[in-house]
Amino acid sequence: MGRLHYDFSGEHVLVTGASRGIGRAVAEGFAAAGADVTILSSGAGIQETAQEMTARFGRKVAAIECDITDSAAVKAALAPLGRIDVLVNNAGLERITPLLDPDPSIEDTFRRITDINTNGTFYVTRNAVPHMVEGGRIIVTASIWSRVAVPDFAAYITSKHANLGFTRVMAKELGPRGIRVNAVCPGWVRTEAAMLSLKNMSLRTGRSEEDLLAEIVGAQVLPGLLEPEDLAAPYLFLASDGAKDMTGQGLMLDRGEVMA
Keywords, A to Z (predicted)? Predict the structure, then answer.
């Protein structure tokens, strides 16, 4: 992280959707900064990720396998946890859902995306907050698409607008308890989900993935595609005392693609 140094020793951080991509990079950032980290995902791979992180950082990283769309399962999974100082709501699903595509599976995909990205984020937060005390911090992974829109991603963009709205509501509701709530709004990041979207966009438009990626990067002020590890520092900042006066904000991290 270059010249950035954070110390989260003695703090417990829960990161959802942390088996890979942005979530894993953020969890590793907190672990490197001395935090006690718990990672959560619906896939069995979360156990292996926790083992790899434990070996890398020399401190145990706990893992929870849980489908966050199941409110009862979320409640049971989080009940044994002690104090949570930082909650990172990162779990999410990104797929194309064209409005006029006659394929009936589009509706199933729409429901699944909104169930994970919107309902799941609500369930996790609702059950994590009782474990938080004054000074707690919640960070939501939104998207630049929580501020703008593009064709064919109705479910994902709708859910990300909801995430940003949820962030603002929770900032208002939890502020009196001394809990800050902010969002990070990443642009295009080289993750498995984003590259799958790029592939599907290519198939749908008949344009090459290389051409589409060049157009995406060309819309940025700063060149190059974001990597997952580029996102860790902004999350650590929002969880740090450096952001003690920030709440209800959506921090844009997109190399200047959307200036809002």
Answer: Oxidoreductase
Tell me the two tokens of residue 42.
């619906």
Token pair belonging to 188: 């295009």
Q: What is the pTM of this model?
A: 0.94
Instruction: Write down the catalytic residue from 6, 123, 156, 235.
Output: 156
37-to-54, 83, 190 alpha-carbon distances in Å: 10, 12, 24
**Pick the residue with more confidence: 252 or 259?**
252
Q: Where are the beta strands (DSSP E) in the chain?
A: 12-16, 36-41, 62-65, 86-89, 137-141, 180-186, 250-253
Q: Kindly report the CATH class assigned to 12-188+227-253.
A: alpha beta
How does residue 64 score in pLDDT terms, banded at 50, 70 and 90?
Answer: very high
Nearest to 127 by CA among 191, 51, 71, 174: 71
156 is an active site residue:
yes
Tell me, what DSSP letter sits at residue 36?
E
Q: How far apart are CA 174 and CA 211, in angstroms?
A: 45
Tell me, what's the pLDDT at 1? 45
CA 128 – CA 135 distance, rounded (Å)? 14
pLDDT (mean) for 130-139: 97
